[in-house]
Amino acid sequence: MGDNVALKILKEHLVEGELVPGQEIALRIDQTLLQDATGTMAMLEFMAMGLPRVKVALAAQYVDHNLLQTDNKNADDHAFLTSAAQKFGVYLSKPGNGVSHQVSLERFGVPGTTLLGADSHTPTAAGLGQLAIGAGGLDVALAMAGHPFHLTCPRIWGIKLTGKLQPWVSGKDVILEMLRRHSVKGGVGKIIEYYGPGVATLSATDRATIGNMGAELGATTTVFPSDENTLAFLKAQGRGEVWRELLADPDATYDDHDEIDLSQVVPLIACPSSPDNVVPVSEIEGLKVDQVIVGSSVNSSFRDLMTVCRILDGRKVAPGVAFHINPGSRQVLENVVAQGGFMMLLLAGGQVHQPGCLGCIGMGQAPGTNQVSLRTFPRNFPGRSGTKEDRVYLCSPETAAAAGVLGVVTDPRKLSDLLPWPAVQNPEQYLVDDAGIIFPPEDGGAVEIVTGPNIVPFPEFPALPDQLDLEVIIKVGDNISTDTIMPAGNKVLPFRSNIPAISKFVFEQADPEFAARASEKGDGAVVGGENYGQGSSREHAALAPRYLGIRVKLAKSFARIHRSNLINFGILPLTFKDKGDYDQVKQGDRLQIANLRELVQGGATEIPVRVNGSEIVTLLHASERERAELLAGGLLNKVKEETNGGQS
Hints:
With 648 residues, the chain is of the alpha/beta class. It has 20 helices and 27 strands.
C-alpha cells in the first residue's frame, strides 16, 4: 500500500507515537505563525520559558487583527511584539502588510514542512502542500521553544476531485459544497486531502481558499499535493528553490472517502448564521443586499480581487450598497494596482481598505441593523460582525461582485449577459515587496523589550484539587463557537494581553451577567452540547473562563482546538457518557466530583459526577501527558515543574 501526501509528511515529522487514528502522536514543527490577537499572550508564554532564541526553522509574527488604534492599547502591543520578535529571532509582518495566512503563503511557506499557527485558519498553507495546523497560543509558544506538538492522530479523508470548474464558479464554491454535504462537524478528527485529476485545474490560491475553510468543517487540517501549480506559484514569488514535488503514491489509500465532480459545482452561499447553512445562490436570488465585503484571510488573493475588478470595470456599485475591498496583503494590492485594478474599484464606487482581517473579526465594517451583508469571509457566526442579530452570508468573490453591481443576490453566471467571464489567472511573476516585513537580527541579546501598561503578567493557577464542588454557571446548546465564549471586535481584542480585563467579556453575547456571576460563585462549571468551542483557535476562550474560576466544562462533544486549550489551562473537559444526561443538568445546579486526582492520575475514563444528589457518569478521554497537565493545573505549570526538576 502506498502513502498519501498527509501520511508522507506525518511520517517525516513523527517524533512520538504511532500513526494509528485515535492514538496520541507528537510532530516536529518546522515553522510557527502568530498573529497579534493571539500572539501577545503567546509571546508572554514563550518569554516565561526563559529561552534566548526560538528553536524552529522559521517563526513569524503578524500584525493583522488589531489594526484600529483608537487608543494606546493596540499600538503598545504592536511595539511589544516588534521588540520581542527582534529579541527572539522572529520575522515580523508590520501593520498593513497583510493577513498572516496570505503573507505566509507568499513569503514563507515550504511544501512538505509543518506549520503550527495560533490561528484556526493556518491550514490556508495547504495551497503550498504544507501540513499546517491551527492550535492555541501556548502550544505554538512551546513549538517555538523546540517542543514537539502533541495531537490525536487523525484519520485521512480523501476527497477525489474530477472535472473542471465552470466559468463564474471558484474554489470558494468547492469548500461551500463540502460544508453543504458534511456540516461544521464533518471534518472533526480528520485531515482532508484532495487528490485526483481535478486538483491540477486548481491554482495554489484556489487551494489555499479550500484549505482555509477546512477549519469550518472542524478538520485538523487540509492538504493538497505539491505539484507543477505549486511550483508555478513559488517561482512567481521568486522562491522556486524551496519547491519539492510531493504527490500521493498511485496506490495510496484513505480512511474515508468522498468525490466531487468540479464541473457540477454551482455558485453556493452560506446563509446566516453558520458556514454550513449552504444553498445554491439561485435559491435566494433577488434578496436585497446592503453591504458587500471582499477579502480577509480567505478570497483576498490577486485572482480573487482582480476578478472583482474586472466585473466592476466600467460599472457602478448599485445605489444603497456599501462595497468594501480588504486585500490579503500589500503584495496583492501592489499587483492589483499594477494591473490597473485599483482604478476600476475606485471608479465603480468601491472602498479599498488596508490589508488586514478587519471586518472578519468585527474590527470595523459592522453592518447596520437588519442589513444583509455578503462577505467572502470564512465565518458568519452570530454577532461575529460586531452587530447583534446580524444577517451575514458567505459567498465567492464572483457572487459578491454580482450583488455589488446589481444590488441583490444574483447567481454570478448571469453576469455573462453583461461581460465575458474574466478568467483571471495569477501572475507569472508577482511584484515582490518585503518592505512590510522586519527581518530578525542574528543576535537579539541587546534588544530591550517594550512593555506597555496593557501587558499584564500571565495569571497563576493552582493544581487540580482532589474534590470539586461546583455550580453550573451557564448551560448552552450545540455548536457554540469561541466567538460566543470570548467575543472578538474592536472593544474586546485590545485586551488580549490583559486577562483580568478581557475576562469581563466572557459569554457577553449569550449572558451579559456571566462574568460577574462566575466571579461571585467561586469554582464553577459550564455545560454545553455538541461541538462545543468550534471556530477560532483563540485560547482566551479557555484562559479567561479559567481566570473566572471555571474548573470543568461538561459537553456532549468538544471541538479539537478548544479541548486542547482547556487542558492547557487546567480546565477538565468532560463529556456525557449518556448524552441524554445533558437534559438533566440545569444552570444553577451543583456538581460534586470526589477522588478527582486519583481518578485522573489512575487513567480512569469514567468520572462519576453527582448532580443535585444524583449520579451521572462522564468521560475523560485524555492521554497520560494530558492528565499530567490537568493534575498540575495546566501546561505552563507542568513545564515549570519539569524545568525545576519536579519542584513546582
